[in-house]
Amino acid sequence: MKNIQKYSRLVKFEHTIFALPFALIGFFLAMKDTNSSPELSLLILVLLCMVFARNAAMGFNRYLDRHFDKLNPRTTLREIPAGILKARSVLHFVIINALLFITTTWFINRLCFYLSPVALFVILFYSYTKRFTALCHFVLSLGLAIAPVGAYLAVTGTFSLPPVLLGMVVFFWVSGFDIIYALQDSDFDAGLDLKSIPVLLGHKRALLFAKGIHLLSAAFIIAVAVKITGNWLHWTGASIFIGLLIYQHTLVKAEDMSRVNLAFFTMNGIASLIYGTFVITSLYI
Q1: Distances 148 to 44, 46, 199 between C-alpha atoms, Å
Q2: Were 112 and a residue from 24, 105, 144, 209 both cysteine, which residue would form a disulfide, CB within 3.0 to 4.6 Å?
Q3: Taking a C-beta distance cutoff of 8 angstroms, is the pair 140, 174 a contact?
C-alpha cells in the first residue's frame, strides 16, 4: 500500500482529472453517434488506457528530469531527488505502464492498437522538448489532446470531426495553462538553458501569449457546441468553462506568482469537471 501511495504521488494521480472528462465526452459522443448503449467493459478499457498512458508519461518525466528536480528548490522534495523512490524503479514503472497501455489497446480494437506506439511516442517525447524548444508546452498539450480522439476511436474505430475539435480545445487549453505554470520556474530554467515560453518572452508577454492561446481554446469550445448542435446544457457548460478560463488570468500577474497553483490546479480541474458533466448530460437530454 505504501508503494502504491508513493507512485501515486510520483505521477500526481489526481491530475488525471484534466483530460479525463474530455476522454469521457469523446466516449459518450461516440456511443450516441453509433446509437449504442454504453458498454461498461469498453469504458473500463478506455479508463485503463488513460491511467497507464499518464503513468508512463509522468513517470518518465520525473525520471528524465531527476537531476534538474534536485537543483530546483521547488522540486527537491519530489520522489526521486528526495530518495523516496529509486530512479531505476521509476524507469521500470514507466516500462510496465507503457506495455500495459499497448496491451490494453489490443483488447479495444486494431486501430487503437496500431496507433498506440504513436501516442506513447508523443507523451514520452515531451519530456525531452524543453531541452531544445520553447514550444514544449504544445507537445505536452498534444499528448493530452489525444484523449477525446482516442476514446472516440475506441468505440467507433473511425475518425470524426467533433472529437478532433474537442482535441483542439484540450490542445490550446493545456498549452495555455502550462505556460502559466512555467512562469514560476523561468529564472531556474534560463539558468540551465532550458526552454519555455516564459524564458523566451518574459513574464508579461508570456501571460499575454497564454491569453491568446486560451482565446483559441474558447473558440473551439464554441465550435464543438455548434458542430454537435449542443442544447442549453451544453452551452451552459461551455460558458462556465470559458468563464473559468478568463477568471484564471485574473489570478496570476507578471509580478505575482503566489496564485499560480490556484490557477493551474484548482481552476482548470473545476473547469474540466463542470464542462464534462454538462456536455455528457446534454447528450442524453
Answers
A1: 15, 10, 31
A2: 105
A3: yes
Q: Please, what sign has the CA dihedral across residues 202, 205, 207, 209? A: negative
Residue-by-residue DSSP string for 167-200: HHHHHHHHHHHHHHHHGGGHHHHHHTT---HHHH
As a whole number of angstroms, the distance between CA 244 and CA 177 comes to 12
Task: Band the pLDDT of 7: cuts 50, 70, 90.
Answer: confident
Phi, psi of 50 (to 5 degrees): -60, -45
240 touches 278 (CB < 8 A): yes
Supply 157's cell numbers.
474505430
Range of lowest pLDDT (9-23, 57-71, 142-156): 9-23
pLDDT value of residue 13: 67
The span from the CA of 164 to the CA of 131, in Å, is 29
Q: The cell 473559468 sits on which residue?
A: 244
Alpha-helical (H) ranges within the chain are 2-10, 20-33, 40-64, 66-71, 87-106, 110-129, 136-156, 161-182, 186-191, 197-201, 203-227, 232-251, 260-261, 268-282
What pTM did the predictor assign?
A: 0.94
